[in-house]
Design brief:
Subcellular location: Cell membrane
Radius of gyration: 21 Å
Number of domains: 2
Distance between the termini: 7 Å
Strand content: 15-25%
Protein name: Cation-transporting P-type ATPase B
Strand order of the largest sheet: 1-13-12-11-2-9-10
CATH topology of the largest domain: Rossmann fold
Family: Belongs to the cation transport ATPase (P-type) (TC 3.A.3) family. Type IB subfamily.
CATH class of the largest domain: Alpha Beta
Largest sheet: 7 strands, mixed
Number of helices: 13
Structural class: alpha/beta
CATH superfamily of the largest domain: HAD superfamily/HAD-like
Helix content: 40-55%
Order of helices and strands: HEHEHEHHEEEHHEEHEHEHEHEHEH
Bound molecules: adenosine-5'-diphosphate, magnesium ion
């Protein structure tokens, strides 16, 4: 490959809204046959909304909402932002949080109003022996059956509530995935979210292979597994939890709307955060290389 042709490709990329880390990056895209897509913020908008707040018997919906919102106000996760935004802060300022810890891909914890509060995947609470009472377990099941994400809220050793959040697929995702298939790529949906929510999104955009309930450390293992099976893997992601997998992939594409860590770990950045631009990126590199050969 001549450096000049690759530089031209890089310049054309910038016009299309693709920031390319170095001209040599384009060379690896040609052989890519598998494209791993993160769900939240990549295939979906990542703009989650709160659909429902459920309190366990004897607990108040208000306490569940307030303590969770306080804790999540320190979180950058789309779920955290939705829960914090759902609190009417004009009526009542949120309480202070001490000892805040973000458990990437699991949830958040900290001390609020003197209580040790945990907000996250139901399994995070189960790890702490905070088992969901039947009413909350039902709420989780119903939410997941509807393709939504149920977040459990607990404090002082007991599960107290469930907050149901949901997201929508980006308007261009289905078309982009169809075009990626036309280019000969097999799409795989990879997410830390629950299986039902993942299947719900996969069905809307035409993806058949779904890997759900994945912990952040296992996202990179999934990319390695595909590579060990002989696949040349592109990965598209936006989150802190995607960074290691983006770096491991043969080609890492970050959503420009995502976190800085994901952008730093990637070879390409899609400025507008639109999957159709991922199609442009793969086409561009194939064309660039074709003119050099
Ligand atoms: P994705 O792979 O879809 O981007 P993540 O790995 O970031 O998802 O998160 C996986 C799951 O962990 C979420 O579906 C949620 O249940 C839980 N989780 C992660 N961060 C938070 C948070 N800040 N608040 C509540 N739950 C969270
Ligand atoms: Mg994400």
């Amino acid at each position: 490959a001549t450096p000049t042709a690759l530089m031209v490709g890089t310049g054309r990329g910038a016009q299309l809204g693709i920031l390319i880390k170095g001209p040599e990056v384009l060379e690896s895209t040609r052989r890519v046959d598998t494209i791993v897509l993160d769900k939240t913020g990549t295939v979906t908008t990542g703009e989650m909304t709160v659909h429902e707040v459920v309190a366990a018997e004897g607990e108040s919906v208000d306490d569940v909402r307030r303590l969770a919102a306080a804790l999540e106000s320190a979180s950058e996760h789309p779920i955290g932002r939705a829960i914090a935004a759902a609190h009417p802060s004009t009526e009542q300022p949120l309480p202070r949080v001490e000892e805040f810890t973000n458990r990437e891909g699991l949830g958040v914890q900290g001390v609020v109003e003197g209580h040790a509060v945990v907000v996250g995947r139901p399994s995070l609470l189960a790890d702490w022996a905070q088992h969901l009472p039947p009413a909350l377990a039902d709420a989780v099941e119903q939410a997941q059956a509807a393709g939504r994400t149920a977040v459990a809220v607990g404090w002082d050793g007991r599960a107290r509530g469930v907050i149901v959040v949901g997201d929508t697929v980006k308007p261009t995702s289905a078309e982009a995935i169809a075009r990626l298939r036309d280019l000969g790529l097999t799409p795989v949906l990879l997410t830390g979210d629950n299986e039902a929510a993942a299947q719900h999104v996969a069905a809307q955009v035409g993806i058949e292979t779904v890997v759900a309930d994945v912990l952040p450390a296992d996202k990179v293992a999934e990319v390695q597994r595909l590579q060990a099976a002989g696949k040349v893997v592109a990965m598209v992601g936006d989150g802190v939890n995607d960074a290691a997998a983006l770096a491991q992939a043969d080609l890492g594409l970050a959503m420009g709307t995502g976190t800085d860590v994901a952008i730093e770990a990637s070879d390409l950045t899609l400025v507008r955060g639109d999957l159709l631009v991922a199609v442009d990126a793969i086409r561009l590199s194939r064309r660039t290389l074709a003119t050099i050969k």
